Amino acid sequence: MYIKNEDTIYAPATIPGTGAISVIRVSGPEALKIADKVVCCRKGNISDSNGYSLKFGIIYKGGNSCISEDKHILDEVLVSIFRSPHSYTGEDSVEISCHASSYIVSEIMALLYAAGARAAEPGEFTQRAYLNGNMDLAQAEAVADVIAAQNAAAHRIAFKQMKGGFSSELKGMRNELLELVSLMELELDFSEEEVEFADRSRLDSLLSAITDHVSRLIDSFRLGNAIKNGVPVAIAGATNTGKSTLLNALLGEDRAIVSDVHGTTRDTIEETLNIDGVLFRFIDTAGLRETSEVIEKIGIERTFKKISEASIVLGMVDLTREPETTSATVSDILEKVDFSTQKLVILLNKTDISEVNKNVIMLNIIVSLIENKEIASTTIHFIKNSSLCRCFNAGDSKNESEKHYVLHEDKENPVRNGVKEVTAISRNHVANKEDSADDFQPETASSSDRNVSVFIIPISAKTGEGISDLRSALADSQRDLLGDSDTTLVTNQRHVQALTDARTSLLRVREGLASALPTDLAAQDIREAIYHIGSIVGEISTDEVLGNIFANFCIGK
Hints:
flat, about 550 residues, Gyrase A, domain 2, alpha/beta, 17 helices
């Protein structure tokens, strides 16, 4: 969209609807004079007022301010005055605060139009702020993200980007590359003298550091996008294990259809829920089972797709079924989970009607299946709820300092009340609720060199028992995102693509240096990386390389 900066524009800055006030923003070279034509101030004119000041005024229905023949008062208003360049857009601006009546707002905008302003295009105020140098392109994009933020984590990320945190990182990398490519350009100018201005070892070291930095930013997109749009949580399991009931229990409303008929849910159902400042996107999926029904098969295929796309997978287990029939479904879920990027939570459902002995058997089967995944280091956490401990006879430890347990047959200890005793184990264990918070955290290392945590939570989706434990575990899993971490997370697909293109160019440079690529070709690849990084913040001028040379070196040519 082409912006005619000589135009003065107006638009409501507040959403339509009934409320105390509405704000109408006016920006452009004639903003103050146009405001004088619309608003009648008792003392002085708006155009003669200082910036960062307020004036009380009256707007008459007939317009033309104080000289209006129609003395019918439309509204009494406050006018905020901002003078260039100290305004949001960098232009002269006013903001008219009036009563929030759709009639009043529309009448005032009609008066502004009659006075010579035009209606603003979508995003035009922020676009003018960018064009006038008040913010870069990444900051401008972040304005929309701040407005759209639905949770504390998304707001923190967007606000940091709007204040220039992300831009500073990019500009730092870009300036280093500009310096290097400038030195390489100098080498081309002095090619006959065989002078090497750009130290190759320093160049390779810097390229390696920048490439790693770019890769980290690219890898952060999965998490950043999840926070922005909701952390995707797939609810998976066999038919009639209580997945839809769980979704309804989490939402507190009957969103999904619940019935005793197998295969009721044939497509995915998605709903968002804010838990302790983090937005989660819960996805109810079709039940897993062997079927010849075509539509249900499609639904099951979508289930596996949603599992692969989720950040957290909730595997539902029906404790009332025979353990042998349930283990196949758990195995299917385990096969689909990528433990390097995803979290797995096993939910032992229907504790309100299940049998204790069967519960223990099922728990041990699940532990064995997880162990058989051959992950280097696995920790299994059993989040105990006092009201549900009876279902597993998992009471408190005899040793208060010992908090890690696993349920299994202990031949040395007698069976108590027909239930296997709870004993400690060193490698794979079940931990009590107090241990869950520090371990259930997002991790970025591969499953081969880190400890993988799997959580097992007994619940009753029907009665609501254990649901609070699940909500707490989910909130704890993302709570570090609410802190004051300096870690930058990329949330914009355009930025990811630009960073990916930049990394490709940088890798080409490193490969070229290793194979003695000519300086001019290596310089061209660096210029491409500079271009892609600069495109994120809007600094894409190719003249900067030449400017950098003249600014830093007096070559006399």
